[in-house]
Structures are given as C-alpha cells and as structure tokens.
C-alpha cells in the first residue's frame, strides 16, 4: 500500500510535527508516525466502501418506494441493475473487507451518510449511469467498467468527499491520491472468477516497515549532528533563511546517505528532490539538489559512503 516515497513523507511529517511542537519526546513522534501509517489503511477502507454504501443506499430507496401506498409502476418494478451489480456485491461480501471494517470499528458512513446520498445523486445524474442502465443486458465486464468509471469520474475527484477526509484527519490529504490510484487499479483487475477483494497490507514487506521506523529514529537521534553536516555547505543561505521543511529534508537525505548502506545515493537525492517540489518552496528543490550533490561528492572522496552492492554510489 505504501511505497518508499510515501514512507519518507510520513517520516518527514512526524519530524516536522516534533519540531513545531518543540518536543524532545522521541516516543511521541514515533507514535504519531505509527498512527499516521496505520490510518492509511482506514482511509483505504473508507474510500473503497463508498461504493458499497452507495449500493446499500439505492437498495434502501427502492425498498421504501416499493412500500408506498400509491407507488407508481416504475417504483413497484424498478430497474435493479445498480443494486445487482456483481462488482458492488463482490465488494460488499468480501470477508477481507468486512472483517477489517469490524476490527477497526469504522462506522463513519453510518454517521455521515449524507455524503453517500450526495454521491448516489451525482451518480444517478451522470451519463455513465444512464448509459449503463439503458443497456439491454450486462456482463461482468460491463459491471466492472461501470464501477471503475463512477469511482474515477465521480467519487475520487469529489471535492466534498475530499474536504470530509481532510477535516477528519489532516494527514489523509496527502494519502488520498495514493489510495485513489490503488483502488482504481484494484477495480480494473477484478475478474468474474474472483470471490474476494483483499485488503492490501500497509507495507510491501518487513523491510519497508523497518525502513519507516529506522529512518525516523536515526534522523531524530542524530538531529543536531545531521544539521552540522550541511550547516557550512550553504554559504549563500543563512540558517534563518532556509525553510524549516528543507532542513528536515536535508537531514533525512544525509541520514540515508550515511546510515542506509543498501540505498543508492542517486535514489536518495531524487526521492527527496521530488518531496521538496511537492512540500516546500518553489526554489527548494534547486537549493536541496545543490547541497546534496556537493555533500555526496565530498562523502565519496572522503570514503564515508559505505554502500553495499554495485552502482550504489
């Protein structure tokens, strides 16, 4: 679920939180990091189950309409294609999903079901819905394509849903693009023979989990020492002029160079340049690139880059 860049962003956010709060309690920052990482799976489940809740809401509306004393012919004999969609039913009946929802006690959509109502209304007003409902018959592929399209075109870019998640947990704002892309890919890969939709693991493997913890610990435990590594390498920049987030990025990058011997220097520099472009000032990536390039060359000459494997320098 989380790639290495997103792990680096999570660590950066935790270090920034520690610096902003002037906290010296390393465990507080690590708890923030672990919660922030764990919350990514909560977000995944909540985003994915908007599809399930939309189906349930439509089923509820149909049931109520059919019981009306003066129900119309259309209400008594509704088109049930949406609630009978095989992909939506697959999501709803997947034990992997339902068990995780129960384990994490995620009941937000029962409280904030107005968002589900809003999504259902937008879906039913769309050409995607009208075209799907007008088909004389549908295959599994039609069902899947419909779900992919409403997720991609209506749910994922919905500004009200975006605002809801941002207000609910601030760190989710950075996680949403990753989660939306993951879910879209999952939906596209579904086959008619599938009986489950599995909830992805937070980390690809144990190595990535260790990377998150070790990057945080090694950076914060050497916070001042890492600052001194670049303090005199920025003659045209007073310490007060360097953006706070840039100093954290530089510390993390230098920490990787010196203390993570299996990560190539070029990978480290490129990753943090991309993070700087997204999270810091417009000129930050140029500044950071210059500092890291100069430092890496100096380290190589001094023999301080203890990298294992070919091509890691």
Q: Can you tell me about this structure?
A:
Keywords: RNA-binding, Transcription, Transcription antitermination, Transcription regulation. It is built from 16 helices and no strands. With 313 residues, the protein is mainly α. The chain folds into two domains: 163 residues, no CATH class; 81 residues, NusB-like (N-utilizing Substance Protein B Homolog, Chain A, Orthogonal Bundle), CATH 1.10.940.10. Helix 2 packs across helix 12 and helix 13 crosses helix 14. The two termini are 28 Å apart.
Q: What is the secondary structure topology, with strand pairs?
A:
Blueprint: H1 4-21, H2 26-66, H3 73-76, H4 86-93, H5 95-104, H6 108-111, H7 113-125, H8 127-134, H9 140-155, H10 159-168, H11 172-189, H12 206-221, H13 223-231, H14 244-259, H15 265-279, H16 284-302
Offer a quick outline of the entry.
By secondary structure, the protein is mainly α. The chain has helices at 4-21, 26-66, 73-76, 86-93, 95-104, 108-111, 113-125, 127-134, 140-155, 159-168, 172-189, 206-221, 223-231, 244-259, 265-279, 284-302. The mean pLDDT is 93.
Which keywords apply here?
mainly alpha, N-utilizing Substance Protein B Homolog, Chain A, RNA binding, Transcription antitermination factor NusB, NusB_fam, NusB_RsmB_TIM44
Q: Helices and strands, in N-to-C order?
A: HHHHHHHHHHHHHHHH
> Using DSSP, what is the number of strands?
0
Proportion of beta-strand residues: under 5%
Number of domains: 2
The span between the termini is 28 Å
Q: Mind summarizing the main beta sheet? A: none
Radius of gyration from the CA trace? 24 Å
Helix content: over 70%
Parts with pLDDT < 50 across at least 5 consecutive residues: none
Query: Structural class, from helix and strand content?
Result: mainly alpha
**Mean pLDDT over the full residue set:** 93
Inertia-based shape: elongated
What's the helix count? Answer: 16
Protein name: Transcription antitermination factor NusB
GO molecular function: RNA binding
Family: Belongs to the NusB family.
Keywords: RNA-binding, Transcription, Transcription antitermination, Transcription regulation
